[in-house]
Design a protein that fits this description.
Blueprint: H1 2-13, H2 18-34, H3 38-52, H4 58-74, H5 78-86, H6 91-107, H7 111-119, H8 124-140, H9 144-159, H10 164-190
Length: 191
């Protein structure tokens, strides 16, 4: 397999268009990580990140960073994915990338890291949603006390949403999600 990846890397080096090269490097790195060539995959992701700097079109640069961050998530390189997401200039796309990161970290029970990613989300609505999902994940695995704290944080964040309708919707969703916490507390009491 290593020979196959070396050939793919040499082919990627010949790609002149920076966006296309970044995409190819991302694909190679994801495949390397899948078969356990993790350290080399990190190097290839770094090459992809360096290549992104040469993309002149801001939209293409944003898209390239987003797909690289997504690839890093697939390779369980969460810290690197957060770094890539932070480099996205467009606030909306940066938020989308950080939300995907919090979702994947929560699924992997990496709650502290998910909280760190959520704190980087600028939009109060999106941050509230991320915190709510993290709290639900914590409650489901029996981290009841910590889940209470995160639900409280989600509520406080939702209260800061300027748009009245969005604020009420976010608060409603956090309250509804608290049902999971109640179920977790009942389960803990029965044990």
């Amino acid at each position: 397999k290593a020979g196959m990846f070396e050939k793919a890397l040499k082919a990627a080096e010949r790609i002149e268009d920076a966006w296309e090269r970044a995409w190819a490097l991302r694909e190679i790195a994801v495949e390397m990580a899948k078969v356990g060539i993790v350290e080399k995959a990190k190097e290839v992701f770094e090459q992809a990140m360096e290549t992104v700097e040469r993309i002149e079109d801001a939209r293409k640069r944003t898209w390239a960073l987003r797909v690289i961050a997504e690839g890093m998530l697939k390779a369980w390189m969460f810290e690197q994915a957060m770094e890539a997401a932070e480099r996205i200039e467009d606030a909306w796309w940066r938020t989308r990338a950080l939300r995907e990161i919090t979702e994947e970290m929560t699924k992997a029970w990496m709650f502290e890291q998910a909280m760190e990613a959520a704190e980087r989300i600028e939009s109060a609505w999106e941050r509230s949603e991320a915190l709510r999902e993290i709290a639900v994940g914590m409650a489901k695995v029996g981290m009841v006390e910590k889940a209470k704290e995160v639900f409280e944080q989600a509520m406080k964040t939702a209260e800061r949403i300027e748009d009245a309708w969005l604020r009420s919707e976010a608060l409603r969703m956090v309250e509804k999600a608290k049902e999971v916490l109640g179920q977790a507390m009942e389960t803990v009491e029965r044990i």
